[in-house]
Design goal:
By secondary structure, the protein is mainly alpha-helical. Helices cover 46% and strands 0% of the residues. It has one domain. The longest helix is centred in the middle third of the chain and has 13 residues. The protein is globular, with a radius of gyration of 13 Å. The N and C termini lie far apart (29 Å).
């Protein structure tokens, strides 16, 4: 399976940096996991 790249905007990075580590770390882990599996089980396609 191909690896993907996840990029956060500067605004998103600043927002996450303001959060405590106990809150921000699981978010970073979830975002990082999208690099290896961009469509994890249970995800739903968004509609406009």
């Amino acid at each position: 399976m191909a690896n993907y790249s996840v990029q956060l905007s500067t605004k998103a990075k600043k927002y996450l940096d303001k959060l405590s580590d106990s809150i921000a770390q699981p978010i970073f882990d979830a975002i990082s996991s999208l690099e290896t599996d961009p469509r994890p089980g249970g995800c739903i396609k968004l509609k406009s």
